[in-house]
Amino acid sequence: MRLKQDxxxxxxxxxxxxxxxxGMHTLLCAEYCGRSHSDMLGRxxxxxxxxxxxxxxxxxxxxxxxxxxxxxxxxxxxxGCSTCHSIDGTRGDGPSLRNIFAHxxxxxxxxxxxxxxxxxxxxxxxxxxxxxxxxxxxxxxxGSPARARDPGADRVHPEFx
Length: 161
Hints:
Number of strands: 4
Helix content: 10-25%
Distance between the termini: 41 Å
Strand order of the largest sheet: 1-2
Largest sheet: 2 strands, antiparallel
Shape: globular
Number of helices: 5
C-alpha cells in the first residue's frame, strides 16, 4: 500500500486508511527532503480486533509489570511529551514537568490549581482546557480521545525523573 501526506510545521492533519494485513509495517519518507532523509522511519502495528480490545483493556505484559517511574519515562519519551515538556526545569513550548506534581500552578485565566493526576490526564486529553500562565501562545497540541484509551495514560506520573 502506498499513500502520501505532507507534514507542515504548526499544521495538524489526519490521514486515515484501513489496513488489511496484520503485523508490523515500516513507514518510509516519500521524497528526498534533506539530511538524514534515510533515518526518517516510522512503524505501524496492525492487530486483529480481539488483540486491540485486549491491549486497550490490559496493556501489554511489559507495561503491566514495569516499575511506575520506568514506565513514565518510557511513555514520556515515546509519546512525544519530551517535544514540548522538559523534566529538568528548562523552559520549552510547554511547562516543565519538574517538581510540578502536587504543587500549585497559576493558570492564564488567573486561577491557581494543584497539579495532580486528574489535571495531568485532562491535559493529555484536552491540552487547551487549562493553560499555564506564560504558555498561552505555546499550546498547539490538539486533544485526542485516543489518548484516553491508551492503557499507559493512567500510569504516566510526572515525577518519574
